[in-house]
Amino acid sequence: MTDEPLETREPPLRAWSRKHAVTVLAAVLACVYFHAAWPSALLALPSFLSFIVASRGRLTPSGRFGLANTVTSVRLALVLGLTVPGAWLSSRAAAALTVGILCLDFLDGWLARNRGDASVFGARFDMETDALLVLVVTLRLWLVEGYGVWVLAAGLWRYGYVILLWLAPGTGREAPRTLLGRYAFLTLMLGLIGGLVARGTYGSLCVALGTLTVSASFARSIYFAHSAS
What we know:
It is built from 9 helices and no strands. It has one domain (6-172). It is mainly alpha-helical and 229 residues long.
């Protein structure tokens, strides 16, 4: 047992999350300017790599990288792959790839729990990979599938939430991850996948339902952060 303070033994999650949020928001501005999704991959990848390097030795309880984090890394690579030009990847192929990424999301959590590799780093790595997946799919819906710019709202929520708690921290507490939040994420992803495979009113309704659900989840988190302890 070490007497080293906890904050020096855990990854600097809050500081990195803030820098990462600013980086991704800057990437979105670049995506708007270039009318392409690749800037999100170009800027997000170095940010994730810096997080991994800064967390070395604390990636899992044993210190090794671990199989669960390896699966999350594969997920991240596949998410970045979704930023290729629309002509390289059909809508249905993008939907199938998104479903595959979600399946790997269940797998890495199961591996972390059952192999003793669960860690603070792994949980944040997983969550931020999920957030980037949402952003990248919404970018695809806007840039390639012809949806209005409003679809980006779901992809921007995570990063706006981090910046908001930075500028107006309230109690300083982040809402704990709950089944409600997981259901909201799943509903969102099903809605976004529906938007990829459908067109017209049905696709828009799918995306809108997912966006409203995740917006309600983040509204709850903001309330939690600013309510009395």
